[in-house]
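Ticket 4471: requesting a sanity check on a complex prediction with S-adenosylmethionine. Repro inputs:
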Amino acid sequence: MASQEVKQFMRWQRWNASNAKAYDAYKWLSRSQGWSSYIQGMLSGLPSGATVLEMGAGTGYITAILAEHGHEVLGFDLSEDMLARARATLERQGLASRVRLWQGDAENVDLPDSSVDAVVSRWVLWTLPDPRAALSEAVRVLRPGGVAAFIDGTVLKQSKLARWRGQWTDYLLTGRKPGWRDACYANFDAQLPRINAEQIAEHLQSCGLTVLRVDKDVDRATDGPFRRWLRGDGWTSHAVTAVKRA
Ligand SMILES: C[S@@+](CC[C@H](N)C(=O)[O-])C[C@H]1O[C@@H](n2cnc3c(N)ncnc32)[C@H](O)[C@@H]1O
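Returned structure tokens:
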């Protein structure tokens, strides 16, 4: 699998303007209080005003939460279309002055060593041709004593009924017709290496971090069972929190 080819696909097709709009619509199915508390828990101990880097900020859902918590947020994403929606959301919420966003690659972060107090990333590792490279980059830019907070997900086998429910929810929320996801799978989604919670923890540890927590059931604390049911329950999230040894 050629890494540049995957990135071109992710940047220009997988997360293009219409998919960015559809992705953004899912915020209506997210429990913002749940996500806010969860992120606060992962970053507990970090003072307000800390510099937090978000890798793969997408449409800005977690970015806004970080800014609301009083952090100075730096964020990048491969897709300008996703970032355009993030910028609009942050403007609307009056949070833009606390956030700097740019187009960038998680596997090659354009920041100096030890320059941020925390790195946060949700649902980005699975999209990468080399997720371990992104984890190593996170460790490089993190200052000693800083916190790494990675949330990622696993695709689950769905029953036919759940798949049908998920497709209807997607159609009603976004207008996408059933089958759109198959096109992504026919391209690169199915070939991506993906790493599970233990592998994330193992890699962070090998780069000099101490793992504080591995959580294999993030959904319970964030979106709740009804929302998962509506979405067809085809995805479950896990998270790893770690601190860089001084
Ligand atoms: C499932 S979305 C998650 C967005 C956001 N983190 C959130 O939690 O809502 C995946 C995001 O990863 C971004 N992405 C994919 N490959 C990337 C890369 N190499 N570097 C940075 N971002 C990337 C995509 O453009 C997309 O915005």
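Notes from triage: The beta strands are 51-55, 72-77, 99-103, 116-122, 142-155, 209-215, 235-244. Leaving this open until the requester confirms.
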